[in-house]
What we know:
mainly alpha
Amino acid sequence: MKHRKIVLAVLALGVCMLLVTTPASQAQAQNSAQAQKLNMVVKQLNLSPEQKIKLMPILEDEAPKVEAIKANASLTNFQKLQQLRALHEQTNPQVQAILSPQQYEQLQQIRQHELEQTIQKKRGPQPQ
């Protein structure tokens, strides 16, 4: 009987630990994915160290907002597109001041590609 209580207490503690650590682990994984995306953008744009120092805080601030819009199930794809474009328009002046015209155009292409991928993921695989 005493042994059973100990086992139940250990199991309950284990479940509590899972519930507490899971959201933190998910947030950490999401942050890691965002960091990977940001690093990929930095590499694709071939930023100078100075450009990277200036641009990263802007992109890091924008990333969670972009993900929140993408994950918002109450928005239609069109509404998501509008909100993402509005968000990018807010940061565009700062970004343009840092990047060369070629880099800025490349960033716009990367953003457009991300939007298209997001919409395609929501629609599911297209029949062939």
